[in-house]
Protein backbone atom coordinates (compact mmCIF):
# COMPACT_ATOMS: atom_id res chain seq x y z
CA UNK A 1 0.00 0.00 0.00
CA UNK A 2 1.24 3.51 -0.77
CA UNK A 3 -0.01 7.07 -0.80
CA UNK A 4 -0.42 8.96 -4.04
CA UNK A 5 0.30 12.69 -4.18
CA UNK A 6 -2.80 14.25 -5.70
CA UNK A 7 -5.28 17.05 -5.02
CA UNK A 8 -6.41 14.82 -2.17
CA UNK A 9 -4.63 12.09 -0.23
CA UNK A 10 -5.31 8.86 -2.07
CA UNK A 11 -4.40 5.39 -0.85
CA UNK A 12 -3.24 3.08 -3.63
CA UNK A 13 -3.56 -0.64 -2.91
CA UNK A 14 -2.03 -3.18 -5.27
CA UNK A 15 -4.35 -5.71 -6.94
CA UNK A 16 -7.45 -3.90 -5.69
CA UNK A 17 -10.83 -3.19 -7.26
CA UNK A 18 -12.05 0.42 -7.13
CA UNK A 19 -15.42 2.10 -7.48
CA UNK A 20 -14.77 5.47 -9.11
CA UNK A 21 -16.97 8.48 -9.80
CA UNK A 22 -16.33 11.82 -11.46
CA UNK A 23 -18.55 14.61 -12.77
CA UNK A 24 -18.50 17.29 -15.41
CA UNK A 25 -17.64 20.83 -14.33
CA UNK A 26 -20.67 22.50 -12.73
CA UNK A 27 -22.62 19.30 -13.48
CA UNK A 28 -23.25 20.43 -17.04
CA UNK A 29 -25.35 17.71 -18.78
CA UNK A 30 -23.07 17.19 -21.78
CA UNK A 31 -24.07 13.57 -22.19
CA UNK A 32 -27.66 14.34 -23.07
CA UNK A 33 -26.07 14.60 -26.54
CA UNK A 34 -25.60 11.02 -27.84
CA UNK A 35 -22.57 12.03 -29.94
CA UNK A 36 -20.74 12.88 -26.73
CA UNK A 37 -21.81 9.60 -25.15
CA UNK A 38 -20.45 7.74 -28.17
CA UNK A 39 -17.23 9.69 -27.81
CA UNK A 40 -16.95 8.64 -24.17
CA UNK A 41 -17.25 4.98 -25.21
CA UNK A 42 -14.59 5.54 -27.88
CA UNK A 43 -12.21 6.93 -25.27
CA UNK A 44 -13.03 4.33 -22.63
CA UNK A 45 -12.29 1.61 -25.18
CA UNK A 46 -8.99 3.20 -26.18
CA UNK A 47 -7.92 3.74 -22.58
CA UNK A 48 -8.74 0.14 -21.64
CA UNK A 49 -6.55 -1.10 -24.48
CA UNK A 50 -3.67 1.18 -23.50
CA UNK A 51 -3.82 1.06 -19.70
CA UNK A 52 -4.76 -2.62 -19.44
CA UNK A 53 -7.25 -2.55 -16.58
CA UNK A 54 -10.14 -4.90 -15.87
CA UNK A 55 -13.59 -3.33 -16.03
CA UNK A 56 -16.53 -4.97 -14.28
CA UNK A 57 -19.28 -2.35 -14.52
CA UNK A 58 -19.74 1.22 -15.74
CA UNK A 59 -22.41 3.83 -16.23
CA UNK A 60 -22.46 7.18 -18.02
CA UNK A 61 -25.16 9.66 -16.99
CA UNK A 62 -25.88 13.16 -18.23
CA UNK A 63 -23.14 14.71 -16.09
CA UNK A 64 -21.07 11.93 -14.50
CA UNK A 65 -19.76 8.41 -14.80
CA UNK A 66 -19.10 5.44 -12.53
CA UNK A 67 -16.53 2.72 -13.08
CA UNK A 68 -15.89 -0.51 -11.18
CA UNK A 69 -12.38 -1.52 -12.21
CA UNK A 70 -9.10 -3.12 -11.24
CA UNK A 71 -5.91 -1.46 -12.52
CA UNK A 72 -3.26 -3.71 -14.05
CA UNK A 73 0.32 -4.09 -12.91
CA UNK A 74 1.78 -1.37 -15.13
CA UNK A 75 -0.68 1.51 -14.64
CA UNK A 76 -2.33 2.56 -11.39
CA UNK A 77 -5.75 4.06 -10.76
CA UNK A 78 -4.57 7.66 -11.12
CA UNK A 79 -2.91 6.80 -14.45
CA UNK A 80 -6.14 5.29 -15.72
CA UNK A 81 -8.32 8.19 -14.61
CA UNK A 82 -5.89 10.81 -15.90
CA UNK A 83 -5.87 9.10 -19.28
CA UNK A 84 -9.66 8.81 -19.54
CA UNK A 85 -10.35 12.36 -18.41
CA UNK A 86 -7.56 14.11 -20.30
CA UNK A 87 -8.04 12.28 -23.60
CA UNK A 88 -11.80 12.75 -23.51
CA UNK A 89 -11.51 16.47 -22.70
CA UNK A 90 -9.18 17.03 -25.65
CA UNK A 91 -11.31 15.00 -28.03
CA UNK A 92 -14.72 16.43 -27.17
CA UNK A 93 -13.31 19.93 -27.59
CA UNK A 94 -11.93 18.82 -30.97
CA UNK A 95 -15.36 17.56 -32.00
CA UNK A 96 -17.14 20.72 -30.82
CA UNK A 97 -14.56 23.05 -32.38
CA UNK A 98 -12.60 24.49 -29.47
CA UNK A 99 -9.48 22.42 -30.26
CA UNK A 100 -7.92 21.69 -33.63
CA UNK A 101 -8.36 18.24 -35.08
CA UNK A 102 -5.39 15.90 -35.25
CA UNK A 103 -2.76 16.80 -37.88
CA UNK A 104 -2.86 15.00 -41.21
CA UNK A 105 -0.42 13.02 -43.31
CA UNK A 106 3.27 13.73 -42.56
CA UNK A 107 2.61 15.64 -39.34
CA UNK A 108 0.36 12.86 -38.12
CA UNK A 109 2.96 10.23 -39.05
CA UNK A 110 5.64 12.07 -37.06
CA UNK A 111 3.37 12.40 -34.03
CA UNK A 112 2.11 8.83 -34.22
CA UNK A 113 5.62 7.37 -34.46
CA UNK A 114 5.97 8.13 -30.74
CA UNK A 115 3.20 5.62 -29.96
CA UNK A 116 5.19 2.66 -31.26
CA UNK A 117 3.11 -0.54 -31.18
CA UNK A 118 -0.02 1.52 -30.43
CA UNK A 119 0.25 3.51 -33.65
CA UNK A 120 -2.60 1.68 -35.39
CA UNK A 121 -4.86 2.20 -32.37
CA UNK A 122 -4.30 5.93 -32.52
CA UNK A 123 -4.71 6.07 -36.28
CA UNK A 124 -8.13 4.46 -35.94
CA UNK A 125 -8.94 6.73 -33.00
CA UNK A 126 -8.12 9.81 -35.06
CA UNK A 127 -10.43 8.61 -37.85
CA UNK A 128 -13.23 8.01 -35.35
CA UNK A 129 -12.83 11.52 -33.93
CA UNK A 130 -12.96 13.03 -37.42
CA UNK A 131 -16.14 11.05 -38.13
CA UNK A 132 -17.77 12.32 -34.92
CA UNK A 133 -16.70 15.85 -35.83
CA UNK A 134 -18.44 15.48 -39.20
CA UNK A 135 -21.60 14.18 -37.52
CA UNK A 136 -21.53 17.07 -35.05
CA UNK A 137 -21.26 19.67 -37.82
CA UNK A 138 -24.08 18.03 -39.77
CA UNK A 139 -26.26 18.24 -36.68
CA UNK A 140 -25.28 21.63 -35.25
CA UNK A 141 -23.16 23.49 -37.84
CA UNK A 142 -21.41 25.34 -34.97
CA UNK A 143 -20.88 24.75 -31.25
CA UNK A 144 -23.69 27.28 -30.58
CA UNK A 145 -24.32 27.42 -26.83
CA UNK A 146 -22.27 24.35 -25.95
CA UNK A 147 -19.57 25.39 -23.43
CA UNK A 148 -15.99 24.21 -23.54
CA UNK A 149 -15.79 20.82 -21.85
CA UNK A 150 -14.16 20.35 -18.44
CA UNK A 151 -14.32 17.66 -15.77
CA UNK A 152 -14.50 18.47 -12.09
CA UNK A 153 -11.12 18.41 -10.38
CA UNK A 154 -9.89 14.98 -9.29
CA UNK A 155 -12.34 12.10 -8.71
CA UNK A 156 -13.92 10.10 -5.91
CA UNK A 157 -12.75 6.54 -5.30
CA UNK A 158 -13.62 3.72 -2.92
CA UNK A 159 -11.57 0.54 -2.73
CA UNK A 160 -13.59 -2.66 -2.58
CA UNK A 161 -13.10 -4.54 0.70
CA UNK A 162 -15.06 -7.75 0.15
CA UNK A 163 -17.20 -9.72 -2.28
CA UNK A 164 -20.28 -8.22 -0.64
CA UNK A 165 -18.84 -4.72 -1.08
CA UNK A 166 -18.23 -5.56 -4.75
CA UNK A 167 -21.80 -6.81 -5.18
CA UNK A 168 -23.21 -3.69 -3.52
CA UNK A 169 -21.34 -1.33 -5.86
CA UNK A 170 -22.01 -3.51 -8.91
CA UNK A 171 -25.71 -3.40 -8.03
CA UNK A 172 -25.56 0.34 -7.48
CA UNK A 173 -24.14 0.89 -10.97
CA UNK A 174 -26.70 -1.52 -12.42
CA UNK A 175 -29.53 0.57 -10.94
CA UNK A 176 -28.18 3.96 -12.04
CA UNK A 177 -30.44 4.40 -15.10
CA UNK A 178 -33.46 3.94 -12.80
CA UNK A 179 -32.00 6.15 -10.07
CA UNK A 180 -31.60 9.00 -12.56
CA UNK A 181 -35.00 8.48 -14.22
CA UNK A 182 -33.46 7.43 -17.52
CA UNK A 183 -35.07 5.04 -19.96
CA UNK A 184 -34.98 1.35 -19.01
CA UNK A 185 -32.83 0.69 -22.09
CA UNK A 186 -30.39 3.56 -21.45
CA UNK A 187 -27.59 3.13 -23.96
CA UNK A 188 -24.54 4.09 -21.92
CA UNK A 189 -24.49 1.27 -19.42
CA UNK A 190 -22.47 -1.89 -18.96
CA UNK A 191 -25.53 -4.12 -19.48
CA UNK A 192 -25.92 -2.87 -23.05
CA UNK A 193 -24.94 -5.95 -25.13
CA UNK A 194 -23.30 -3.69 -27.72
CA UNK A 195 -20.59 -2.93 -25.16
CA UNK A 196 -20.11 -6.45 -23.87
CA UNK A 197 -16.54 -6.37 -25.16
CA UNK A 198 -15.62 -3.83 -22.46
CA UNK A 199 -16.56 -6.08 -19.53
CA UNK A 200 -14.26 -8.55 -17.76
CA UNK A 201 -15.24 -11.44 -15.52
CA UNK A 202 -14.72 -10.90 -11.81
CA UNK A 203 -12.93 -13.91 -10.34
How are the SSEs placed, and which strands pair?
Layout: E1 2-4, E2 10-12, E3 18-23, H1 34-51, E4 54-60, E5 64-70, H2 77-96, H3 105-112, H4 119-140, E6 156-159, H5 163-174, H6 176-179
Antiparallel strand pairs: 1-2, 3-5, 3-6, 4-5
Structure at a glance:
By secondary structure, the chain is α+β, with helices and mostly antiparallel strands. It has helices at residues 34-51, 77-96, 105-112, 119-140, 163-174, 176-179; strands at residues 2-4, 10-12, 18-23, 54-60, 64-70, 156-159.
Structure characterization notes:
This protein has helices at residues 34-51, 77-96, 105-112, 119-140, 163-174, 176-179, and strands at residues 2-4, 10-12, 18-23, 54-60, 64-70, 156-159. It starts with a strand and ends in a 24-residue tail after the last helix. Residues 1-5 have low confidence and may be disordered. A hairpin with a 3-residue loop joins strand 4 (54-60) and strand 5 (64-70). The strands form two sheets. A four-stranded antiparallel β-sheet has the order 4-5-3-6, with helices on both faces. Strands 1-2 form a two-stranded antiparallel ribbon. The radius of gyration is 17 Å and the shape is globular. It has a single domain, classed as Alpha-Beta Plaits (2-Layer Sandwich). By secondary structure, it is of the alpha+beta class.
